[in-house]
Amino acid sequence: MRRFRKTLTTAVLTTLLVGSTAGWASASSESALSGPLPGAAAWLADDSLDKEPLDPTTASPSEVAAFFADLTDAQQQRLVEDHPTVVGNLDGAPVNLRYEANAPAGDQVLAYDPRGRGLIAQVVGDLENATHVSVIVPGSDIDISTFDGTARRAADLQEEAGDDTAVIAWAGYTTPTGIGPDLATGRLAETGAERLTRFTAGLDAAGLPDPSLFCHSYGSVVCGLAASDTDASDIVVMGSPGMRAVDVTALDTDAHIWAAKSPDDWIDRVPNVEVLGLGHGADPTSPDFGATVLPADDVPAHDEYFTPGTSTLTAFAAIADGDL
Q1: In whole angstroms, what is the distance from residue 250 CA to residue 225 CA?
Q2: Is the pLDDT of residue 4 over 60?
Q3: Per-residue pLDDT reduced to its tens digit, 44-68
Q4: Locate the DUF1023 domain: which residues (predicted)?
């Protein structure tokens, strides 16, 4: 009977999603940020270095790292002063220069793009000297104006993990807002995965440890799509609607996959299907998926996986610090 009810729910949900997409699209469809970084034209026109500036739109993080390594300290400083919006968002640029370029936006801000709803990445802990690095990838309804919650979760994880771990709160992609087609499809997650892959490649180019990714809700869709192209050591998903993969093998990654879902999380009422591009597939906590399932019985709600004192945050910290 339970299987019949779930099958019926899936069929009804799919019908509603397909039938309602046109109406939703006009009301809540988001446009992912694209195009050159603010200030890119002035950067490209700057000939004061006696060398051709790299194109910030097309240069790889490793090319960015090599470019900055070939500059004197004085040249690096001048670029920060003259082109802060470019330097502050260049994956692969030295961490200290990105912090300085983004200083007006806050403390230890690793990226800041004010266009649209805004993108931001902020560090808790000593990233430049960290033995372990974690990145929190949030779900829907997160942007610059709602970033405080993600930053707080990063602080809670870093405090639990200890001083040798740095945690990055990464609101670096355009997230879905409200209930609509963006939440049910992978369109924004695909762009988010590209941005996450480039961001983690930038950490690698800057000489930092392979990160652990902590991916919440729709953020787990982003991490699932990025899994095969990132060098993450661990990918942890929580409150996940699916990773757009049938199982761990389909993610095509060497990262250890972990999953957590509270019995009090409303996500458990969302059918794990993917039909006509709608839905995100298998439940990562299901036995057939193959992830290592983490305790979450004491997590009170969908947005509370990083709550201090829970068994889940304790497990997260052990993963972040390399103890699991």
Answers
A1: 10
A2: no
A3: 999 999 888 999 999 999 999 999 9
A4: 113-274
Angle in degrees, 0-180, between the axes of helices 311-320 and 148-161, rounded to the nearest 10: 70
Strands 234-238 and 292-293: unpaired
Identify the three-state secondary structure at position 236: strand
Q: How far apart are CA 192 and CA 177, in angstroms?
A: 14
Class of domain 116-324: alpha beta
Alpha carbons 3 and 10: distance in angstroms, whole number: 10
Distances (CA, A) of 213 to 71, 199, 309: 32, 12, 21
- Bridge-based pairing state of the strands 234-238 and 132-137: unpaired
| 28 band by pLDDT with thresholds 50, 70 and 90 | low
Judged by DSSP in three states, 117 sits in: coil
Helix (H) or strand (E) holding 18: helix 2-28
First to last CA, the chain: 39
The average pLDDT across 137-149 equals 97
Give the pLDDT score at 13.
45
State the Cα–Cα distance between residues 14 and 25, nearest whole angstrom. 16
Burial of 268 from C-beta contacts in 10 A (0-12 / 13-18 / 19+): middle
- What are the residues facing 256 on neighbouring strands? 234
In this structure, how many other beta carbons lie within 10 angstroms of the beta carbon of residue 179? 13
Q: Burial level of 49, CB count in 10 A (0-12/13-18/19+)?
A: middle
Report residue 47 as tokens: 């000939």
Q: Are 101 and 84 in contact (CB under 8 A)?
A: yes
Residues near 209 by Cβ (< 8 Å), separated by ≥ 6?
Answer: 130, 131, 132, 133, 233
